Amino acid sequence: MAQPALTARGALPVHLRRLLEFSAPVPDDLCLDVAGGCAELTDALRERVRRVVTADAPGDPCSLPHPDRSFSLVTCRPSLRSLGEPAALVRELLRVCAPDGRVVLAELVRGDVTATGHAAPGSSVTALTGLIAAAGGTIGRVDAFTAERPLDPWLARTDAAAAGRIRRTLLREVDGGPVTGARPRVIGGELWFTQSWAHVAIRPQ
Known about the structure:
Protein name: Ubiquinone/menaquinone biosynthesis methyltransferase
Organism: Actinomadura rubteroloni
Distance between the termini: 35 Å
Largest sheet: 8 strands, mixed
Domain Methyltransferase type: 54-105
Order of helices and strands: EHEHEEHEHEHHEE
Radius of gyration: 17 Å
Number of domains: 1
CATH class: Alpha Beta
Strand content: 25-35%
CATH topology: Rossmann fold
GO molecular function: S-adenosylmethionine-dependent methyltransferase activity
Keywords: Methyltransferase, Transferase, Ubiquinone
């Protein structure tokens, strides 16, 4: 059952804290954080590793400006399909990962509501692990779980028109309208929704 993503002020939400622990950063790690879009998690990584290089600036994540085998930890979130051709991106992440390092992917597999107000066609865990294997990665650990979170903080980075469409879509579902896969409900007068995540740790073959 999904657990509400309640946090103390300044603390990471449950799904991000879970990703941080799953990544298992250590003080000697040189980390590449690709398209994170979450300064809180990047800052938390910086507190645990030797150095974090971010790849959030505009550019092609399928052609990273780093030499082969440069990083002991490579993190990528939140969605391969939003960053480019998924298999090509996985191959590029593996290219910059040291032989004894690991790539950690955080992928939404359900509950990704797009700016149009419709559910995105999420990947399944099986499809995700199959894609990784086909791209040349060796799968280590997998963590699949659900996280329930308040809608308004998630919409804070979305333009007002798109945020309005998403809110209306989820409210219609609460009232018995079309199902989005986000399982919205009202808690204490606030609209919440549920996302299903898969965290996968992989290494070069």
